[in-house]
Amino acid sequence: MSSSAVLLPILLLLVGLAIGAVIGYLGALARRTTTHQSEGEQVAELRAQAAQWQARAEELSSRTQVAEERAERDGSVLRALAPVRSQLEQVGARVESLEKQRAEQHAALAEQLRATALREQDLARSTASLEGALRSRSARGMWGEVELARVLEASGMMRHVDFSEQRTIGSLVQRRGGPAGAPDAV
């Protein structure tokens, strides 16, 4: 039930009560003043009071009418805004869903960043270890020999068929007058 439907009967009841109270008051006043005043004065006074009460009743009636019109306008505005309210509720639900997804994605991204940081630390340790190993002459030499074997195999040669590794040829080199040593591959 709308507020205007409840407000109208209450206001009409109040106006009726006010008019009844005025009439009762005027009747009591008329009885009381008959002994003190003349009839003409009493009638004039009663007419003045009746005019005041009638003006008050008209004022209350106009206020009632204004209140009814306002309630009707408010009701029509609420009815017009009902679809907007529905859409706002849907938008609110969607925003809440998106916020939940964003929080989940943020948590996943934070986890990936932590894992990446750990991998970066491991990579830095491995790099430092590799750097230390490559500074050693013997490690560099062994690495060079392994790479040479890979290059030869990649060129289509087969180990122990087309080439062999670390064969000493000290006797050949010494006969020619050069330093004795072992070639990486022959």
UniProtKB/TrEMBL annotation:
Residues passing through the membrane, by range: none
Top-level taxonomic group: Bacteria
Q: Which Pfam families match?
A: RmuC
A GO BP entry is:
DNA recombination
Cite the entry's keywords alphabetically. Answer: Coiled coil, DNA recombination
Coiled-coil features, chain-numbered ranges: 43-120
Similarity field: Belongs to the RmuC family.
- Briefly state the protein's biological role: Involved in DNA recombination.
Q: What is this protein called?
A: DNA recombination protein RmuC
